[in-house]
Structures are given as C-alpha cells and as structure tokens.
Amino acid sequence: MLDINNLSLSFGTQKVLQKLTISLQQGEIGCILGPSGCGKTTLLRAIAGFKSVQAGSISVNDIIVSDAGYKMPVAKRKIGVVFQDFALFPHMNVLKNVAYGLSKLSKSEALKLAQEAIELVGLNDAKSKYPHELSGGQQQRVAIARAIAPKPDLLLLDEPFSSLDPDLRERLSSEIRSIIKQQNITALLITHDQTEAFAMADKIGVLHHQQCQQWGTAYDLYHEPATEFIADFVGEGVFIPVQVVAYENDSESKIEASDDKLLWLETQLGRFLLPQEYIDNAAFKVGDIAKMLVRPDDLRHQDESVLKAKVVGRSFRGAHILYRLSLNQGEPLLCLAPSHHDHQIGESFGIHLEVEHVICFPY
Ligand SMILES: Nc1ncnc2c1ncn2[C@@H]1O[C@H](COP(=O)(O)OP(=O)(O)OP(=O)(O)O)[C@@H](O)[C@H]1O
C-alpha cells in the first residue's frame, strides 16, 4: 500500500536519509523511531508531498507520488496528516474544524463525514465547543478526526501525543490504534518514544546515521536487533564481553542441534554451549571476543544460584523491580525481578542467565 523504495532525502549538500526502503500493507500501522535530528519529520514531509525527493520513490496504492523527477501536489495525494501541535483553528468549533478539509464536497456530504469522524473519536458531545474549551487530549482527537474525515488512503501522524502527559498519552495512543484498525486505515507515525511505538505499531523502523537500520516488529527489534545501535536504543540492556572458547560437535548436548556446530561462550555469568545458529547476527571464530546483549529479563533472580551479584541500584516498577547489579567488579548488569524479591542496595542475591538465543556484536 505504502512503498518507499531506495529513498534519499537531502537539504542542499546535507544528506538526511539514504536508500531507505520500507513498506506497509493496507491497514498496517508503521512507526518511525529515532533520536532527535535523524530525519523522521523530513521523511514524513516527503511522504505528504511537502519535500522533494533526491533519489528513489514513494508509492501509495502502486502509484508513484514522489521520485527524483516528480512530486504529486499535496492536495492530490489523499494523505491525512496529524501534526504535533494539533493546528486547530481557534475561531472554529469542533464540527467546523473537522469539516474544514471537506470543502470540495457538498455541504450535506461534508457534514455527514465530519459527524462520522467526530463520533469515531468520541467527541459527539463536544462538537459545538471551541478549541480553548477542550482538554489537550480532546484537541488531539479533533486533529485526528479532521485528518480521517476525508477518508484518506494514508494517515501520517507526526509525534501526535508528545504534548500530552504520559498517562493520557498511553490511553489515547491505544484508543487511536483501535480506531485506525477498526477503519482499516494505513498509518505511519513518527515518534522518539519507544513505548508509544511498541503500543501503536505493527512495524517499526529505526533511523540512525541516515539509514533505516531495521524495519520489523517490536519483537524483532527487542529480541533480534540488527545493529548494535538498535540493541542499545530499543529497550534496556547491557553488553557483556564473551569469548568463543571452542567449537565442538557434541551429540550428547541437551541442545538438539547435533548436526550443527556448537560454540562455547565464556562470560562473567558462566560458560554456555550454543549452536552457532543461535547466535543470530554474527559469525565468530575461536578466540574471538564479542559483546553480548543481556536484557534485564534475560537475567533471572535465582536464590539457589552460586553466582551472586550485589545490588548497586534499584527502580521499583510495581510488578517488578529493575536492579542494577555488580558482579566481580565487571560492568553493571540489569535484572528485572518480580517485586516480591525485595532487596536493598548493598545486599546480594543469586542470578542465572537464561540463554535462549544470543545477540553478539564485534568489539
Ligand atoms: N528546512 C530545512 N532546511 C535545512 N535543513 C533541515 C530542514 N529541516 C530539517 N533539516 C535538517 O535535517 C535533519 C533532520 O531533521 P528532522 O526534523 O527531519 O529530524 P527529526 O528526526 O524529526 O528530529 P526531532 O525528533 O528533533 O523532531 C536535521 O539535521 C535538520 O537540521
């Protein structure tokens, strides 16, 4: 439905994005995530038609809307945009704000579509109110109703919840996701808030160093990050050094991979025997030292473990406590433990690394 192919965007000699390729099926919600200045807004503006393209193409429903030699006018694109700052007209009530983009239709048709969109976002009782009479969340609902009222082919949302408080942001984002899904709208959202990306998106792309470093599900990004930057940027975790100490072909191994090469990985948390295929993203040879990603949920609290680590920091999160642990003076580790395992700073407890698959990067 949305196909972006080998897209490059720049301002004069400053390259912002290069060879970006992502796509969305009808009804999918995509999210572009990345640090400040990585080119999220520029990408959104190029899709909406406000920015020309230096190479590659953008297609919507198999029709090229932008390439290096062509830019379809914004008004012809059938793309709805929701901006960060709501951009509502202060002198118009909710109904008029929502109907504003429908002026090409007959008055009765415009009214019908505006009413439908207002109902969809749950503002039926507020349609005669003016923006200053609405809360931040309500104003953002108006902005969304206005963008979806013309039934666009594609909806673009530019950090739509960033000015709302965290509680409201979470509620509204999951509600807006339901509306988008229920209407089978294809949408692309940009944010620098990964919780929002995880809650909203079917597919997430992470921009860094002018590239989309990975385009996949939240699960892929968290558990199978393609680059060290994504491993670090998405979710929490630490890198610990590992050394590949031997290859073995051990058919007695509990790991059912007797045809595959096995690797011994030596770490500060013990020695692990793993089939090479479990090391998702790198090829290592004996003697190599690598960085292994350890997520807080990979490290289990285990009383009987002989491996004890000392609590150097803790953050209570309700159901869980996130511990910062020190082990043998090495780099601090993170461990997410159920909060009934309540340890204070300075105490020690047993830990065990659950190794299912391993993400390693070269040093
Ligand atoms: N109109 C412009 N003219 C020149 N350079 C620009 C223009 N707009 C953006 N840039 C530059 O392009 C780069 C990408 O900016 P962009 O606003 O797309 O980043 P972003 O990821 O949306 O950042 P943020 O999260 O801070 O909003 C930045 O280096 C910015 O300075």
How would you describe what is shown here?
- This protein has eight helices and 21 strands.
- It has 363 residues and is α+β, with helices and mostly antiparallel strands.
- The chain is globular and about 75 Å long.
- Adenosine-5'-triphosphate binds at residues 11, 16, 34, 36-42, 192.
- One of its GO terms (cellular component) is ATP-binding cassette (ABC) transporter complex.
- One of its GO terms (molecular function) is ABC-type ferric iron transporter activity.
- Pfam families: ABC_tran, TOBE_2.
Structure summarized in a few sentences:
By secondary structure, the protein is α+β, with helices and mostly antiparallel strands.
CATH superfamily of the largest domain: P-loop containing nucleotide triphosphate hydrolases
Query: Which assembly state applies to the chains in this document?
Result: single chain
Q: Which small-molecule ligands are present, each listed once? A: adenosine-5'-triphosphate
Please report the first level of CATH classification, the CATH class of the largest domain.
Alpha Beta
Question: What integer is the average pLDDT?
Answer: 86
Strand content: 35-45%
Would you give the CATH topology of the largest domain? Answer: Rossmann fold
Give the tally of β-strands.
21
Integer tally of domains? 2
H/E series: EEEHEEEEHHHEHEHEEHHEEEEEEEEEE
Instruction: Give helix % range.
Output: 10-25%
Strands ordered across the widest β-sheet: 7-8-9-3-10-11
Number of helices: 8
Catalogue the unreliable spans.
Answer: 250-259
**Largest sheet: number of strands, sense, barrel closure:** 6 strands, mixed
Q: Termini separation (Å)?
A: 40 Å
Question: What Rg is obtained from the alpha carbons, in whole angstroms?
Answer: 25 Å
**Based on the structure given, which CATH architecture of the largest domain is correct?**
3-Layer(aba) Sandwich
Protein name: Spermidine/putrescine import ATP-binding protein PotA
Organism: Brumicola pallidula DSM 14239 = ACAM 615
Keywords: ATP-binding, Cell membrane, Ion transport, Iron, Iron transport, Membrane, Nucleotide-binding, Transport
GO molecular function: ABC-type ferric iron transporter activity; ATP binding; ATP hydrolysis activity
